[in-house]
Amino acid sequence: MDKLIFVSGGVCSSLGKGVAASSLGALLEARGLSVRMVKCDPYINVDAGTMSPYQHGEVYVTDDGAETDLDLGNYARFTKSPLSQANSVTTGQVYQAVIRKEREGRFLGRCVQVIPHITDEIKSRIQGIAKEDPDVDVVIVEIGGTVGDIESIPFLEAARQIIHESGKSNALSVHLTLIPEVAGGELKTKPTQHSVKAMQEMGIQPDILICRAPVMLDEPTRKKIALFTNVEFNSVFTSYNVDTTIYEIPLIFHDQKLDQVVLQKMGVESRHANLDSWRFMMEKFHSRQGKVRIAIVGKYMELHDSYKSVYEALFHAGMENGVEVELVKVDSSRLEEGPGPEKALGAEAEGGPVHGVLVPGGFGQRGINGMVRAAGWARTTKTPYFGICLGMQIMVIDWGRQVLGWEDADSSEFAEDTKHPVISLLEEQENVKDYGGTMRLGASKTVAEEGTRILAAYGTDLIWERHRHRYEFSNRYREEMAGAGLKLAAFTPDGDLVECVEWPDHPWGVGVQFHPEFKSKPTKASPLFRDFIAAAKGRMLSPGAL
Ligand code: GLN
User: Fold this and answer.
1) In CATH, what number does 289-541 get?
2) Per-residue confidence (pLDDT) for residue 200, from 0 to 100
3) Buried/exposed code over 406-434 (b: 16+ C-beta within 10 A; e: otherwise)
4) 362 Cα–ligand 1 center, Å
5) pLDDT tens digits for 154-205?
């Protein structure tokens, strides 16, 4: 029988539930088990695709084109779990499915209710993941939100029913809480006691507690927590603040025997834990030398989660190149006036000049001209530049404006009536009216041309990466753009769409229409991020060499 582990959170949000669930997944994989990860999100949006990055952080895209919660990115970075639409369950999806069935008359005259109809829909989605593949050993289900929230009640109720029906050893509850520190440095367990009580009121007795605390909890504190919560002493763990990297957390949990206790509780025979790849990664982390300064020029700068996978991929690429990546976050609207880029990125910049510029994905007009100026600056100063999705479109706009002399070159997303729409709506998008789930989404094939940086990065001309966009390099400008030297470096297999552009006579200027950040891992950085940081490292080591 497949095992299920429900990971819930208490006290407050942002405790790192996604990282804790992912770390547990990594540890069980290290023990030779086949793990699947699922996120339940209590919001009513059908998916995260229509939410602003400021509301929700980045939208993580899967191969099959699902626009999901950023926790799926954590699962992808920590585990081997395949991820698709099925791994992201939202209240919106659940209600949409139940209401559709009701309209089809599938409930045979019954009154449709939260229990059992909504909970049955949740249960069938969770259990469906395990049934889909006979090789699955464990499904880890992270329940979004905090216990006590009205929104998450149906998900916790579904978990309670599954735990009750499958028996203790087949379905575990892991609960993450906060141990705050009050004045005088004293650690407080009361919020954890209350949080576990709230779980018990829902009919769920947590089997394992992971306590988020500033430091490792001592034995008396863990004993006290165990006493008040009916959780065994050996099942109270600490997720203490790390000043290294979140990728050390699997090792930290392993040292406390989290994986051993989980296996015991599930009645799975203990197997050797092979954590070599995690240890090797930490060695690389500690042997980094020097700091590469990378400017991220975008519009959602205040919230780190908005570009989560991009920042993680830069970190991975730093480890692979033996350097620390210092993020210089630049709000592009600041670069629109006056000396702009030179001041924020060049020799006069606070902290010194940056060694690379990255323009990430984005939507809407605000700050676009600042990004175009940043790209122009990187091009003319021969600073390595990496454009992702919008960042590639920005390269094309800059080329149109500065090299071809078309001052009004733009994307029709931002200037509908421009005479030079060098970026324009994808043909397939012309009659699309709905916003949700209607972009060009998910993985598709890209073919790289000979003698390009993209080919050198991937080492193959057949590239599979994920997309999320409506606009595209406008084919009617191919000849003029390429005639002026812009390298059209990769295409869709039918040759219809330009997927990558590169600057000529430049150390490393590459823009891609897809999002390579989604497939980067701490143990294996995305090839384009790796090569971008390698180029930036070259710039750091010999700043004068242009
Ligand atoms: N707004 C642009 C488009 O829709 C870029 C999208 C993106 O960067 N993900 O094509």
Assistant:
1) 3.40.50.880
2) 97
3) beebbbebbbeebebbbbbbeeeeeeeee
4) 5
5) 999 999 999 999 988 899 999 999 999 998 889 999 999 999 999 999 999 9
Residues with active-site annotation: 389, 515, 517
Among 223, 385, 367, 246, residue whose Cα is nearest residue 304: 246
Closest CA to 65 of 527, 445, 438: 438
Choose the residue to mutate in 52, 470, 512 for probing ligand 1, maximizing ligand atoms within 8 Å of C-beta.
470
The pLDDT score that the predictor gives to residue 350 is 86
Residue 81 main-chain phi, psi, to 5 deg: -55, 125
Residue 437 has pLDDT above 70, yes or no: no
Secondary structure of 117-141 as H, E, C letters: HHHHHHHHHHHHHHHHCCCCCEEEE
Task: Compute, in angstroms, the gap from residue 62 CA to the centroid of ligand 1.
Answer: 16
∠ CA 427-490-455, nearest 5°, is 160
**DSSP state letter for 208:** E
* Banded pLDDT at 544 (limits 50, 70, 90): low
Residues lining ligand 1, CB < 6 A? 361-363, 389-390, 413, 468-471
Mean pLDDT over each residue of the chain, to the nearest integer: 93
**Counts for the chain of helices (H) and strands (E), in that order:** 18, 23
Looking at the domain that runs over 3-281, which CATH code has it been given?
Answer: 3.40.50.300
> CA-CA distance, 23 to 29, in Å (whole number)?
10
Backbone φ, ψ for residue 119 (5° rounding): -65, -35
Query: Which of ligand 1's atoms lies nearest the C-alpha of 515?
Result: 9
* In the chain, domain spans: 3-281, 289-541
- Note whether 3-281 and 289-541 share their fold: yes
Relative to the CA of 364, which ligand 1 atom is closest? 1
Q: What is the largest CA-CA distance in the chain?
A: 77
For residue 328, what pLDDT is reported? 95
What pLDDT was estimated at residue 338? 78
Three-state helix/strand/coil letters over 285-320: HHCCCCEEEEEEEECCCCCHHHHHHHHHHHHHHHHH
